[in-house]
Every structure is written in structure tokens, then in C-alpha cells.
Amino acid sequence: MAVRDAQKTSEEERCVTFSLGDELFRYQANGESPCTFGLPWAPPSEKIFDLHFFWQLWSNLAKAAMRKDVPLVSLRNMSYMLNDTYKIPSALDVNFFGQLSKKYCSWPDLRHSLITEGHPSIKLSFLERVFLMLEEPNSCLLAKAWFYIIMFAAVANLTSFILPETATWMFEQIWGHHHHEKHQAIFSTVCILIFTTDYVSKLVCSPFVRVELVQPSEKYFHLDESQRAVVPQTGTQRCLDFMLQVTNIVDLLAILPWWLDLCFVKILPGAAFLRIIRISRIFHLFKSARYFDMVQVLGLTLWKSINLVGIVFALITVVGLFAACLLQQTEVTMGSQMSEVFETVPASWFWIFCRLIGMKDTIYGKGKVQSYFGIAILAVTLTLKGVLWIVPIARIRQIFSQEYAIVVNTSKARKKMIDDLLAFVAGSDQSLVQSRNGYICCNLQLYSITKEEAWVPLPLHQNEEVKLEKYRVALSSSASAAEVFLDILWKPGAAMKNSANSLPQGTLALTLVGGWRLPDGLHEIQWEVPVDTFSTEKQTVTLKAATKTTDTVTFEIAWTGSGEDDEPREIDDDLQMDYRDFQKQVLHLLQEQAELIQEQQQCVQEYGQRLKGLDSKL
Hints:
By secondary structure, this protein is of the alpha+beta class. It has 5 domains: about 1-120, no CATH class; about 125-210 and about 245-290, Four Helix Bundle (Hemerythrin (Met), subunit A) (Up-down Bundle), CATH 1.20.120; about 305-405, Helix Hairpins; about 440-560, no CATH class; about 580-618. The protein has helices spanning about 1-10, 50-65, 70-85, 105-115, 125-135, 140-160, 165-175, 180-205, 210-215, 235-245, 245-265, 285, 295-305, 305-335, 345-355, 370-425, 495, 580-615, and strands at about 15, 15-20, 25, 35, 70, 105, 120, 440-445, 450-460, 465-475, 485-490, 505-515, 525-530, 535-540, 555-560. It has a 4-stranded antiparallel beta sheet with strand order 9-8-13-14, with no helix packed on it. Strand 2 (about 15-20) and strand 3 (about 25) form a beta hairpin. Helix 15 (about 345-355) crosses helix 16. The radius of gyration is 35 Å and the shape is extended.
């Protein structure tokens, strides 16, 4: 068994490079500065995942578990799903996320495992690399260049359609008055050929592209009973999935009228109406919506409000038809001067429909109601108009708020994830030393020709062991200030582990392991640590000049306060509960009670029916 595991470890190739959007990231395991570098020229030969994708997977698992950390069982099942979907050999044996052994893993745990050990290397085929270059602008520099070409062609082509005089003037300035029409036609043709090349190339590649790999999304990876990801498998399914995507339908609508016009306008003269729908070229600009948050919010709000608007439109139509029948009878019967406007029910319906939706200056939409009954009917109908729009407007506003929160929070979460990652590898991660009650700091004094000092935040509020390596502390707020690198080890005592609100108790070890721009003549440092609530302990250590390090100093922390201490509680790893778990169990109990009440109501109804039967017999 040991030999087999060793062989598997040595043969397994893992990728430790990740995408952070416009740049790539690779963690330096040898202790050097973190490496962030630019995009390659061509698409990479192996899949480089965006680290935000793994954060989304972890976040979904955390929400499902209703915890701040994810059970190891969930990560194991997700690892198998990823291995199975991406056809990784020995799917049950390989941990996609690296070596994780804690029963409950936080995002920093998963992130550290990924950036240090990586994920299994997944090779991309030639067609997948071509598709990636055409579809993802952040995959390489060629992809960015192609994206800018597409956007320039879309804007220029749309400008020539909307502002033909401006386009004509620009072509006259470039190619002269006699040849501008020819060159303008050539330019439009080149733009359409660029759009066609983009669409057709991706269409040809789509049957051979693993979309779940090239464009990974958390929607493909939801743990269910089957533990399988629902993704298109066959070439036909992949091609249909590509063609039915909204962005690709937009591409097709942008080029289809031009080709239909080219192929059929000379054969079928009546097909010239196809030129009318050339305005669809504006759809190319909509593809850039995914790079703008507010455009995404508006688009999603409109898309999710279509059904609601359709229902309101149907209600307005029904109300208008009912009012039209009454108006047609009252106006014609009363013999008003405008009775010709209301001669038929359809004409009356169109007249009232224009009023309901606020449409003006239309044929058959003019005229006035003159009879008293008609005025009453119109007043009631227009009152209903305001009532009909109350619920839809409130619902559309709710949809907008929800989509805005999702898009904005996702953007903020991505930015925070990148900032936390860079802070972690730079040795300035604040997540383990900050708390809701503020920072607990110690004083570090450096003795050289002069004396300098710095305040070092400590993780004394943590009730679990914390180890910070090469934690950076600046000696001043200046951008070029000297920095010291510290190793901080905090081991909480048993009393603190067993109480949620206990004061700091445990052992703290501090070591200076290096520095940057340290002052000349530095020979010793002094630590002043708050070992009690309002008392400190000082220890002085000598700096080793050759290595710029010191020996480790240890402090016994025992904060005390007046009043009763927290009652110690024994925690079972399998039974421990946080606030969300408590909420989950309460909701489960309420659901059981609701089901029990429903069963009792059914029994009461059955007894009631039996009593009615007995009464009828008596």
C-alpha cells in the first residue's frame, strides 16, 4: 500500500498556477516573494483555474452546511465530483484540493492547500485552446487583442449604421470624396467577416470542447443524491448547448441578416425587408455586459421580469376589452359626436388600450368620451390602471434589489478574496489577528544607534492554535519604512478552548526571523507583551548579526477579570453546534410540528365527515 501511494504521488502532476483576472499567480514555496505575473501570449496547454471558482464551490458548500467552515466529507465528495467530471485517473484516490485532513476546513485552509500543493494538471486540446482564446479575454494576450478587435468592429459598424453622415465624412477624410462609398462598403464587409469568423470558429470547436472545463461554473457542481455533475457529454449536446446560449444567439442575430441579404436579395427581391433587422448588430455591444456590473443587473432584472410584465399586459388587455364593450354600447346608444370612434368593439378596445398604457399620437387613438356613462366607465378603468401596476412595480423593484445585491456582493467577494490572498502570501494577513473587540497588540522595541518601536497585533482572542510565519510588521507608516518578519505561535489553554467567551489564556511564542531595511547597528530587541489584563512582561533577546534572527521567547498568558468565569463546556466534534446549526434544527422542529398539525387537521376532518354521516342516518 505504501509503495503504491508513493508511486501515485510521484506520478501525479499538479498545477499550482491560478488566475486572478488580468494576471496569474503562483505561490513560491521556497519562501521568496509571491509571484504574480502577466498573461501568456498564447492560450496555456493546461487548464489554469480562476481561484474565485474554488471560492464559489467552498461558499456553496458552507451555505449548504450552514457553517463558517465546510465538513471534510463535503470536500471529499466535491473532490470526487471534480475528478469524475474532468476524467482524472483514480477519481476516488486523488484529492483534487490537495492534502486536507481537518474535520472542518475554512477557506484559508482550502486556499493554502490549493496554492501550495495545487490541483491535478488537466491538459487542453488544440481546439479547446482555440475556443478559450476566442471566448475568454483574460486567458492570454492574443485573446485580449481579439476581444478588442471585435469590440472595435462592433462600435465602428454600429456607428456607420446609426450615423451614416458622420461615417461618410470620416471615410471622405481618409480616402477622398470619390472612393469613400467603395471603402465604406469594404469596411462593413470586413466587420461582418470578423464577426462571422468569430462565431463559426467557436461553433466548429464547440463539439470538441469540454465547456465544464474551459468555462467552469459552480452550476455544474452541486452535490445531490447521484453525486454526478449535469454537463453536456456528446458532441451534439455540446453544439446545441453552445447555440442556445444567449450570447451566441446575439452573435448569430448580428450576422444572419447580412448573409441572408447577400444570398437572397437578388433571387427574391421581396426579401429586401431583411435589411430592416440589421439593427441587430447592436447586440454585439451587449456581449460586453458581463464586464459591467450595472449592465448585468439591468439585464437580469429585465429578463426575470418578462413573465410578470406579460401577465400585466394580459390583465390590461382583458380590462380594456371589458371596458371597450361597455364604451361601444354607451357611446353609440347615446349618439355622441364621437360615436364613429366607438363603432366597433375592436376600435373601442384599441382606444381604451392606448389610454391604459399611455400610448399617444397613434391612428385610431384619438377621440373623446362624451356620454356620462362613458365618462364613469373611463374613470373606473383608469383607476384600475394604477392598481394593476402597483404589484408589478414592487416586484420588479424587489428583483432589481436582489440582482444588484448578488452582482455587487460577488464582485466585492472576488476583490476581497484577491486582497486576502496577496496579504497572506505577503505576510500581512490580518484575518487571524483582528476581532470584533479590536486588536490585542504587544510592543516591539529595536535597539541600535537609536531606538525604534512597533506595535505587533497578536491572535490572543483565538480559541484554536494559530501559527503565523514571516508575519510582516512595518516600523512606521511610510511606504519605504523598515519591516521585521516574525513567527508567531499561539496555543490557547484548555480553559479558553472550552469556553466561547473566555479571556486569553495560553502560551505565546515570538521569534524574529528576518527583516528589510533594518537600522544599522541593531543588536538587540525587547518584547513587551500583555500577559494579564492590565499588566505586561518584558523580555530582551540578542540579535544574531549574521542571520538577522533571534531566539524564540515564550510568554504565559493568563488574563483575569472580576465576576464569574464562563462555565466550562465539553465539546464533541461530532455534536458541536454554532448559531446557524441551531437555526437549522429549530426550523426542522417547526417543520415537524407543522406536519403533525396537518395530520391532526386531517383526522379532525375525517371525524367530522363520519359525524355528518351518522347524523344523516339518524
